[in-house]
Amino acid sequence: MNQKEIAVQEGLSQAKVTRALQAASVSSDLITLFPVQSELTFSDYKLLSSIEENLHKVDVELKNLIETVTPDIHLTLADEELAEDEVKNRILKILLKESEILTKPGAKERAIVENLWNFSDKDRFARKRSKGRLFSYEFNRLPKNVQDELDIAIEAVLKRNLN
After folding, report:
1. In degrees, to the nearest 5, what angle opens at C-alpha 140 toward C-alphas 137 and 144?
2. Which one-letter DSSP state was computed for residue 12?
3. SS3 at position 4
4. Structure confidence by residue, pLDDT tens digits, 30-52
5. What is the pTM of this model?
6. Residue 81 contacts by C-beta under 8 Å, 6 or more apart in sequence?
7. How far, in Å, CA of 143 to CA of 141, rounded?
8. Taking the mean position of all CA atoms in its chain, how far away is CA 119?
9. Looking at domain 1-108, does it have CATH number 1.10.10.2830?
10. Domain extent listing, the chain
């Protein structure tokens, strides 16, 4: 059936059928990045669909984009002062920016971020960021005693291996 036939059969306008098909074409993995999916508009679905199409054109997997943006999205979600539509708009901007970087010809190697520990509190994290031979450890909202122990452990490892 074409869109017109579906609209007649279901008693809907052709525009509603078009919007529904557009929304259904977007991967659920991408949709789940948004805490309130009902905030997504037709133009948002069009943007998400075009992001997926652009990734597919240059053989970049959607999971690569999701892995890259997840830390930034978690920081956005941790900001409790943002309204639902502001959260949605920030997530869309993050997705758009990162997808443009990934689909740009000769895209630079992206940093790989791996979680070191999962916290129940969404604005706390412990993670390692790697890019080529460069790596760093990132922590947010850890108690002072844990910070001190990490400093001592890192210093001990460096002394043991680099002296």
Report:
1. 95
2. -
3. helix
4. 999 999 888 888 899 999 999 99
5. 0.60
6. none
7. 7
8. 18
9. yes
10. 1-108, 111-163
